[in-house]
Amino acid sequence: MTTTDLPDWNNDRSLVADPYPAYRRLFDEGRTLYWDAKTDAYTVLGYRDVAGMLKDGRFLTNRMKVFLPRIPEETRKRIQPLLDTLGHFMIYLDPPEHGRLRTPVVKAFDTRVVKNWRARIEAVTTKLLDAVAGQEVVDVVPALSYPLPITMISEMLGLPLADASQLKAWTNDVASFIDRTTDPEVAKNALHAVAGFRAYFTKAIEERRSSPREDLLSYLLQLREEHPDISDDDIIGNAVLILAAGHETTTALTGNALLALARNPGELAKLRERPELIEGCIDEALRFDPPIHRTGRLVSEAMEWNGTALEKDKRVSVFLAAANRDPSIFPDPDRFDIERKPAAKHLSFSFGPHYCAGAGLGRTEAIVAVSEFVKRFPHFELAGDPVYVNNLTLRCPGSIKLRVTKA
Ligand code: HEM
């Protein structure tokens, strides 16, 4: 087996526009778990391996100790505040710190809460769609898939919508760093973004400390009284995480679902005729084209994993998006089929202890947005190629132009 023809996940940016042929080729060649010198990590694509590693406690999520030596000493010192903030994200915490933060935070997004917000999600969607009525070509990202989730998560956290574009810009810079940690320019922007986020949330928290409100930030603050081991830095870090995870992913899901329908007019016709298929449609969009393509873990002890020797203290890069196209689990995996009855669940919300805390919210927003869009514009087709934000980890379209007609 040669390594020269392996995909260059971090540098070949054509993979952002379409990574699926690369996944398919690796499955065809049987290369679904290999050591990748370019990323200094095991690359894992097969469904059973990805799901198995995500739920196995020997694979840790805090991979700082192998990540730090990859960054030059001087840069490391400079970006320390950025690393400190990321270090509080629950997504990078292992037991026991992880449960301490996750358990109360998950409650803020449980089924009852999401149900209470549904009417508001519908009202915001209606207003956004009213604003594009009469247009022949609608760019669904600025029109719907971006403003809906940022409005919802801002309202939940209790932040003014006027701040949304600043918060989005900072989110993009932090997300770029998570995608390409060793790029100095990306690190510089992310450092600046984290400083902005910290100042912003410190002020918002101070305001709530003196006069609590009915919002998620006040709830996080109140947790400190019940759980004295939760610090201000925990609250700030996880407010940033919730804000970022709470909008960019759902922007991608809604956009990807509409894109898949535009490219598959037969599936769009089915949804038009049977609107009750919407839940299956969103689940299939999650499988077919997920917002988060890859995540990472750390091998905490040397082991034999399904015939491959894994070395201690190496990273694994698990490709959720590739696992969703594993032909041994999902027959004809490259087909978008809204009536698919999969034998296994897609891994787009991850699996195991870090399963997405906002899955219900993200799914509900996409269900409302896509079903309302199809009601308003029963027929649509692509009016040009989609344009992607430069990020393979959180792969999000920045523009999807659709030519829409009512009849
Ligand atoms: C369609 C939308 C979404 C997708 C595809 C998605 C995907 C994911 C994935 C893959 C992870 C785990 C990554 C890992 O295992 O390393 C995750 C974790 C998380 N997500 Fe989401 N997410 C979405 C929406 C949301 C929303 C709306 C929120 C909050 C409002 C949210 C909050 C979180 C949080 C707090 C975690 C960390 C959980 C933990 O570490 O225990 N997500 N998400």
Describe this structure in words.
This protein is α+β, with helices and mostly antiparallel strands. The chain has one domain: Orthogonal Bundle (Cytochrome p450), CATH 1.10.630.10. The protein is 52% helix and 11% strand. The protein has 19 helices and twelve strands. The protein has helices at 14-17, 20-28, 47-55, 64-67, 73-78, 80-86, 97-107, 111-130, 140-145, 147-157, 164-179, 184-210, 216-226, 232-245, 248-263, 265-273, 278-288, 320-323, 359-376; strands at 33-36, 41-44, 59-60, 137-139, 294-299, 303-305, 308-310, 315-319, 379-382, 387-388, 397-399, 401-405. A five-stranded mixed sheet has the order 1-2-8-5-3. Strand 6 and strand 7 (308-310) form a beta hairpin. Helix 15 (248-263) crosses helix 19 (359-376) and helix 17 packs across helix 19. The longest helix is centred in the middle third of the chain and has 27 residues, at 184-210. The protein is globular. The mean pLDDT is 94. Bound molecules: protoporphyrin IX containing FE (HEM).
Descriptive tags:
single chain, alpha+beta, Cytochrome p450, five-stranded mixed β-sheet, three-stranded antiparallel β-sheet, binds protoporphyrin IX containing FE
Short description:
With 407 residues, this protein is of the alpha+beta class. The protein has 19 helices and twelve strands.
Distance between the termini: 54 Å
* Alpha carbon gyration radius: 21 Å
Widest β-sheet, arrangement of strands: 1-2-8-5-3
What is the CATH topology?
Cytochrome p450
- Extended strand count: 12
- What is the 3D shape? globular
Structural class: alpha+beta
Helicity range: 40-55%
Ligand types: protoporphyrin IX containing FE
What's the CATH superfamily, by name? Answer: Cytochrome P450
User: Sheet with the most strands?
Assistant: 5 strands, mixed
Mean pLDDT: 94
| Total number of distinct structural domains | 1
Q: How many H/I helical runs? A: 19
What amount of the residues lies in strands? 5-15%
CATH class: Mainly Alpha
CATH architecture: Orthogonal Bundle
